[in-house]
Amino acid sequence: MEITEIRITLRDDDKLKAFASITLDNMIVVRGLKIIEGAQGIFIAMPSRQRKDGTYQDVAHPINRETREWLESHVIAAYKEEVRKEQSGQRPVRRERHEDDMEAEDAY
Predict the structure, then answer these.
(1) Cα–Cα distance between 79 and 59 in angstroms, integer?
(2) Is 73 helix (H, G, I), strand (E, B) or coil?
(3) How many Cβ atoms are within 10 Å of 40's Cβ, its own excluded?
(4) How far apart are CA 1 and CA 49, in angstroms?
(5) How confident is the model at residue 107 (pLDDT cuts 50, 70, 90)?
């Protein structure tokens, strides 16, 4: 399996740094990954939905540690590159506001 595209939408938030969408083998898109700044650094939260009882369940997720690490390394590298481009002026600042999050994700 190969990640053939990663799209990053930066956020202007203390903890939620960006949303990511990935394309696998030019065939499957997974939207709604979150790049989060946690106490021990940046990590990826998989897309989830809220259950009736208020808890959350991942919609899609890696089934083992090696796959999670592989996915996380690629997405975090793409995020860091997007931040670098923004800071160097190679990309216009496109940070989304909270109410625009779903619209930004739907644009993919």
Answers:
(1) 22
(2) helix
(3) 6
(4) 25
(5) very low
**Residue 44, both tokens:** 């990826």
SS3 52: coil
Q: In which band, very low, low, confident or very high, does the pLDDT at 98 lie, cut at 50, 70 and 90?
A: very low
> Is 1-46+62-90 in CATH node 3.30.1120.40?
yes
Domain ranges of the chain: 1-46+62-90
Task: Report whether 9 contacts 19 (CB < 8 A).
Answer: yes
Question: pTM for this structure?
Answer: 0.80
Please list the residues that pair with 6 across neighbouring strands.
Answer: 22
Tally the C-alpha atoms within 13 A of residue 1's C-alpha that lie toward its C-beta.
Answer: 12
Residues 6+ apart with CB under 8 A from 104: 9, 19, 96
